[in-house]
Amino acid sequence: MELSKVYFTDFHTTMKENLQQKLSRLIKTAGISQIDFDKKYAAIKIHFGEPGNLAYLRPNYAKTVVDIVRELGGKPFLTDCNTLYVGGRKNALDHLNSAYENGFSPFSTGCHVLIGDGLKGTDELLVPVEGGEYVKEAKIGHAIMDADVLISLNHFKGHELTGFGGALKNIGMGCGSRAGKMEMHSNGKPHVSHEQCVGCAMCTKICAHSAITVSELKASIDHSKCVGCGRCIGVCPTSAIQPAWDESNEILNKKVAEYTWAVLHGRPHFHISLVVDVSPFCDCHSENDVPIVPNVGMFASFDPVALDVACADAVNSQPVMPGSLLEKSVREHHDHFTDVSPNTDWKVAIDHAVKLGLGRKEYKLITI
């Protein structure tokens, strides 16, 4: 069986080569120039970091990727989709403010930021998932699907639901619209918090199935009519409409893989992961804890599955950082991510991605 190639370099530098130059050499050696970028729109999918979190990737790394895409004739833009939860990135205006606050401006990165699913998280395309076990039509941010090329620039770290966040998580969950994120996180249908509802009736206007009514300035959802599309979540100005948050972690991982397939299928893609500041939980938190392992290095591949496995193997080969949550955990799973978040199993997403044809688990690590 042919092995997928994953390219790696550590974080050591010399007087002749800094980290950005080293990342550029890694990406070029991994073969990014094989992609035809000429006059093509290239979406660089990245996590801009929730305000208050300082573990997200520095914008300098994004600029390195942007410069390479421009050098190859492409038209790059940085992108992410709005979040389902309440925070600094739940609509495009807040999301852009958060991105700029964390340094991702056109002046620092050399390209514009486009929020993939629009102002309220409702600008989406329904993408059929061939062979999808749980998702028949993925709800993907429109701007992301409009791009000709998809590049994922991933901060590899732990995650409390999926075990870790790497290429599959960054693409699958990250490119889903707000309704798409609800589909991945929820097995049920949204409900209304009457304490937060102000009776504005915005939800009734967006509902295509007449499932929502407003009485005495409070909205209610008739679940016998509701199809669970989640568009009401996007338009609610007070975040009174909320998902059920009741999907099992195993099925969540499989849905993430199926959403990743929807994003990548039929167009060129390339993936970069930086195993640095490996926080135990997602960059969606408005805080970050002590890294669970030392910094490892930078990885790149055309295969997002092999890339995730290589990064996970690299993290699991590292010593535990003193004072971290990993040191304080009951380490009985022989896997750093499962030790920190015992109810997770990242291998589920990997196996499902292989089944969907997204890539291979077997890889050849090439150190440059």
Protein model, in words:
With 368 residues, the chain is of the alpha/beta class. Helix content is 31%, strand content 20%. It has 14 helices and 16 strands. It has helices at 19-29, 59-71, 92-101, 106-109, 142-146, 167-172, 178-185, 202-206, 231-235, 249-264, 304-316, 325-328, 336-340, 347-356; strands at residues 4-9, 41-45, 75-80, 113-115, 124-128, 137-141, 149-155, 157-159, 163-165, 191-192, 212-215, 218-221, 241-242, 269-275, 297-301, 363-367. The strands form five sheets. It has an eight-stranded mixed beta sheet with strand order 4-3-2-7-14-15-1-16, sandwiched between helices. A hairpin with a 2-residue loop joins strand 11 and strand 12. The chain is globular, with a radius of gyration of 20 Å. The relative contact order is 0.18.
Radius of gyration: 20 Å
Structural class: alpha/beta
Average pLDDT rating: 95
Distance between the termini: 24 Å
Helix-strand pattern: EHEHEHHEEEHEEEHHEHEEHEHEEHHHHE
The proportion of residues in beta strands is 15-25%
Number of helices: 14
Counting DSSP E segments of at least 2 residues, the number of strands comes to: 16
Largest sheet: 8 strands, mixed
User: What's the shape?
Assistant: globular
